[in-house]
Amino acid sequence: MPFRRLIVRQYYVRLAWGLLAGLLPMVLGISISIWQTMSGVTQDAQQRLLHAQYMFDRTLDNAELAASAVMGSAGKPCLEVMQGLRDQVATVPDVRSVNLTEGETIYCTSLYGPVKGEIDLDDYVEGRLDLMRGNPVTPKRPLIVYRQEAGKHSVLVGVDGYYLLNILDMMSRNSPIGLVVGPQMLLRDSQLTDQLLTPGTDGYLEQVSSKYPFKVVTALSNRDYVAHLWDYSKVSLILYPLLSLLFGCWVFWLTGRAASPAQELKRALAHQEFIPYLQPVVTGEDAHWSGCEVLMRWQHPRQGMISPDRFIPMAEECGLIVPMTRSLMKQVREQFAGRVHILPKGFHFGFNISASHCKDLSLVEDCRDFIDAFKANPIKLVLELTERELIVADETTDRLFAELHALGVFIAIDDFGTGHSSLAYLQAFQVDFLKIDQSFVGMIGSDALSSHIVENVVDLATRLELQLVAEGVENEQQAAYLQAHKVTFQQGYFYGRPMPMTDFISQLTPR
Ligand code: G
Ligand code: G
Ligand code: MN
Questions:
Q1: Which residues does ligand 2 sit against, CB inside 6 Å?
Q2: Which CATH architecture has domain 261-508?
């Protein structure tokens, strides 16, 4: 797969990671908000119910207080005790009326004094509490009557609905709280209903009074959750998506940094993914292996073998070609160092060099290390400079090539004939070899004109006292032609393809 397409694929992988990273805090944040809301709404409702129950208890405590105070008057003549009843109405909070009964007959009221009215004892839950829609005095206002009994007599204390509705109003939110007494329920909008909320209802909650026979209930609705979510998680709801976006972008940027071509090449270099392939170079005379060209391959963990055309230009751009070549030289050196004697005498090792190698002198050290490793059976180190890119001669290159020369390194012009090297160029770099480009070798036998070009290059090389290597020799006819024209060395698929070092070693047959 081309390096470019690899980068595009990595772009989508990054995008996926970025999205995932963005989604994660979002999902997490929203989950936390929802969980907080669920428990928050329930807790809040329970607290409101508890509070409401407490306030109803307090109100009924007042009724009980008034009832107890007049308990002694029950059974006495109304005119005699009437004032006592009125005192309670005037002094005890929440109390609206205090009445006395005998059996199911009211015979004395704080408002009118002696009367005759009927009550139904069945209306009183546990004989103590009755929630009423209204009474003759205030037909439209609900009220609660507290009953306290002494033998056949009892005291009835009326508590105005106004107090009850106040409490309900204060404690209700989106879902109203209901005061339930027996079979009836009072809601904040003065509604008295027989349709009770039951424990089966969604979001049902209740709080039962331990003192009086009533309970307060509510059923939480979705509106409660939404309202609570907005009240308490406003900031989070805005912040989470924002944070997610930021986090996602950050991850996208982070993974992008790691996947930039330069980073990818650096990673590959650190993992020794650039490996040498060796292609035999044979003598023109009798075609025995007299050397090799070292060609770089990228053994990518997922993409497989990548050809140098696809990453060498990138490596040169990123300034990584020097360490990459150094790694290649080191691998070849270490592979052969222990077995130098399997190599024919004066074996060539050709390495391809880029223009960026000529910017400093570090190449000299690498070459020295390489040559030194073969002291026991000296080899010829050849550096191939491609004619496709022009190296400008300056002080640094002068010194570099002088030092390389002193070391005994040979210089070859690669792809000769495709570029623009002048004679001056050949002299400036003290060239030893010319590698005839494979495009010319390919023309051999096709027409007379190209044969002349090959002959001319051979002629030029002879006059300049340069040795020749013909590249890209693919068939017998080309091989024979080059041999006839006394080309010193040949290289091409006809003799051997670039191969891993171990294969090369096993095929190497020392003469
Ligand atoms: O082996 P192959 O035909 O795929 O090589 C393609 C090109 O890559 C050739 O032009 C060759 O010179 C170049 N090349 C191979 N290995 C190296 C290397 O180690 N360094 C440099 N600079 N170029 C290389
Ligand atoms: O630019 P340079 O000369 O370094 O390129 C050498 C490249 O040419 C090698 O990478 C190798 O893969 C390729 N090569 C070597 N022999 C042959 C051959 O006989 N035919 C063709 N088509 N390519 C060859
Ligand atoms: Mn080459």
A1: 279, 295, 352, 386, 414-415, 438, 471-474, 492-493, 498
A2: Alpha-Beta Barrel (3.20)
